[in-house]
Specification:
This protein is an alpha/beta fold. The protein contains twelve helices and ten strands.
Amino acid sequence: MIYTSEELKKLIAAVPRTELGFFPTPLYRLNSLSEELGVNLWIKRDDFTGSNIYGGNKTRKLEFLIGHAKETGAEYVITYGATQSNHVMQTAWAAAKNGIKPVAYLAAMVEPDMNDLKGNMLLDRIFGAELHIVYPEEGETFEETEKRSFVMGKDHCDRLKKAGSKCCDIPMGGANAYGSLGYINAMVELREQLDANRNVGISFEPEYLYHATGSGGTMAGIVAGKKLLGMDTEVHSMLTIPMEDTGKYTEGGLRLAEDALRLIDAKAEITVCDFVVDASHAGEAYEVPSSEGSEAIKLLARKEGILVDPVYTAKAFAGMIADIKSGRIPEGSDVLFLHTGGTTVFFAEKEIIGDVF
């Protein structure tokens, strides 16, 4: 079933929501890179979501995640991520803004100096978050350390509940139905921006949309939103975590999309075939910068004055450039890059930043 923007907005309005961001985020053409690459390249600046100065895609998710937490009367929210997690930082400020105590379990793949906190960890503390650092055991992968942190967080939430406090557990990356709904809503916003541009003679209808993906909630919302709106856009979700087999990841994205649709009682035919997931530009590991990502950072900064981060958006931007140069994206195509934020990492540990100058 195809919905109009207004129809979808009415369905979304039935879900509890807390206003956090400044919307719509800017949508505009990258003129220099469009000429250089031979495509009509635009960018949507979800690094400008506000109202915290350090925006990003999690703000859209947190409007519904914190809205749900407030509806349940939560006094605490517990969430997860790496030590320099954008999601954790944005959850900390969103919770604090709404009178909820943020608690975070952070996997330390890059060991922080607790006497000299940097980047997002410094902001976490400023926003009043209670931080628990989970160090990897010998031979343990990032995913295994994450799983231990999830168990520790659940135990913490259970203890709070037994003590009489109300606690809301927010998954890593905000990847659940509420979080994914944030990007169905973002696609409604994009649809309205495209229509407004067309009304003033600016013709841009993205044939390809590129974005970084980690926990999968943004991807799920984008795909669900474009299907609900009947948009003929091929979404390329660029993984930032190395993965040999993306099948289970795609299936997880499908489940998230279906959960978000049920949340607003909307109907759409979505299958795993609607997900184009590419792990070939993820580099060696999560939070490890790639050489092509570093080159993408410098290219975008020096051609358009825009920063993307080495952990997420630079890898996605590098993958998009590779697809354009290889001819996978035909010359003259309308291409949209969704900037999901994350540039606070430039103020983090040097191991995360990479060779950017």
